[in-house]
Structures are given as C-alpha cells and as structure tokens.
Amino acid sequence: MNQRYFILVLAHSVHGRLRRVHIPQRVVYGVLALALLGCFSLFGIVSSYVRMAWKVADYNSLRSEFNTLRARYQNLQNSANQTKEQLATLQVFATEVSIAYGIKQKLEGTTDISSEGRLIPTFSESLAEYNFLKGASLSKLRRRYPSYWQTNVRPDMWPVNGRLMSQFGRRSDPFSGEWLFHSGVDISAATGTPVQATADGVVVHAEYSGAYGKLVIVDHGSLQTYYAHLSRIDVVEGQEIRRGEIVGGAGATGRATSSHVHYEVRQNRTPVNPYPYLKTMVAQEFKEEDLPF
C-alpha cells in the first residue's frame, strides 16, 4: 500500500484491546483545511457583526447629537427673533426720543469729541422732526377726540374770494386749444392773495409739482383738497391745519396763463365736482345768480 496515512491507536480501558485506525493524510489535511476555513469564516462573521454593531452605535450617537444640536439651534433662532423684535422696538423708541429732543444720530466733524461743539440739528433735520411731531400729535388727537375731527373735515368754504374762471369737467385747453378734462375749478385772485384751507386736515404735499406749480394738498380723511399755481407755500408736509388757515398765496406758477387758484376736491384720490361743496358757502362778493351752478 503506497498511500501515506496516519495510524490512530485506540485502547479500550476495560478490555485492554488495542485498535488501530488508518487515516489517510489527505483526509487529515482536508479536515485541517476545513477547520482553518471555518475559523476564517467565523472570524469574518464576528468581525462583520462587530463593525455593524459599532456603526449602529455610532449612528445612534450621531443622531442623538444631531437632535440635540437641532433643538439648540431652534432655541437660538427663537432667542434671536425675540432679540430682533426687542431691538426694533428700542430703535423706534430711540428715534422718537431723538426726534423729540433734537438729538443727532451721529457726530459730525472730527473724531475728537472735544472739538465737536454743540449737537445742533440742521435745518433739514429740524424740518423732518417737526413733520414727525406734527403727524404724531395729530394721530393722538384723532384717537382721543374722534367726534371733533368729524365736524370740520368737509370742505364747505371757498379758498379765496374771486370769480370762477374755468369750471370742472371738459373744457378747451388755454395752451393747445384741445378739449381736455379739467379736474378742478379756477378761481381768479391777485398774486399773493391768501389762500385758505377749506376744512380741517393734514398737509400731505407742499412743494412744486410740475404743471400744478407750487401745490398744497390737504388730507381730510376720505377727501383731499388741492391748491395749485400758488405764488408761495406757507405750510409744510405733516402739518396739522384748521379750516380757514392760510396754506399759501395765489399765483401763476406751473402751467398757468394768469394769477388764480386751481382748486380740486378729490374723494379717495379721484377728482369730483367741487360745486356742491362751494355752493354750501357762497363767497360774500357773489350773488347766487352769478354762480354757474
């Protein structure tokens, strides 16, 4: 027998018999190879399980940390929003205080505070502060005395004593001769004649405005009155004004051929016929039959 083999001797402890078992080397080597392969497979399985368990534990840890960070971020965001709201409130309050007391928001001139001098506001700053305070006081009065503001807001008087030069509606343009819509009435008046506000309100426009020339617009709530082609303006934007107070002087600024007052009444910014308002109080120099309505 040429095949190499191992002899395994088995001895019986009782009978004392010996038994020899021939095991071929191939079988032994095969068993050893299978055992070694099994060890490697078992090691691979165990290592894979360990890696998977480590990754799961790491994932759970990262997820918990992410949830913690997200909760902290939400808290920080809420805190930031509250801080922004408080800062905005403080800025508004600081602006009102600085405007009320005429304090500049920043220093001008050199960086040395000793050479700055007095913190005196400029003319434009003073005008802005005046308009702000006028508007603020007006809104407070309207909230406190609403019934008073409903009594004199109807424009029921003439801005000047004069004759009607041009009526409301379709008319021939004095410059081009074409038929155009006239959004108000023209009342003759000498240059510089005081022009009165026809109702209580707030000045919302007081400057040169193209074809209107020097224009003053007074807001009475749902109604607005326009005083155009003025030679001068005696009011400022944001100013509270009473019925009969002077807004400016009659003139011929802008697109005008002679000295007069262009007067408009607008309801929700739409021109309406001012005749019903003018008719409620006829000018002293007129007879009713002289009026075109």
CATH secondary-structure class of the domain at 164-290: Mainly Beta
Q: From the alpha carbons, calculate the radius of gyration and give it in angstroms.
A: 48 Å
Query: Regions with pLDDT < 50 over 5+ consecutive residues?
Result: 283-293
Using the 3D structure, state the CATH architecture of the domain at 164-290: Distorted Sandwich
Main sheet overview: 8 strands, antiparallel
> What portion of residues belong to β-strands?
15-25%
Task: Write out the CATH superfamily name of the domain at 164-290.
Answer: Glucose Permease (Domain IIA)
Helix content: 25-40%
Give the overall form: rod-shaped
Give an account of the 3D structure.
The chain is α+β, with helices and mostly antiparallel strands. Among the domains are: 5-81; 164-290, Distorted Sandwich (Glucose Permease (Domain IIA)). It is built from 3 helices and 15 strands. It has helices at 25-101, 123-144, 275-279; strands at residues 5-11, 18-24, 164-166, 169-172, 179-182, 185-188, 194-196, 201-208, 214-219, 223-230, 232-233, 240-241, 246-249, 260-267, 270-272. The strands form 4 sheets. Strands 3, 6, 8, 9, 10, 12, 14 and 15 form an 8-stranded antiparallel beta sheet that branches. It has a 3-stranded antiparallel beta sheet with strand order 7-13-11, with no helix packed on it. It starts with a strand and ends in a 14-residue tail after the last helix. The relative contact order is 0.09.
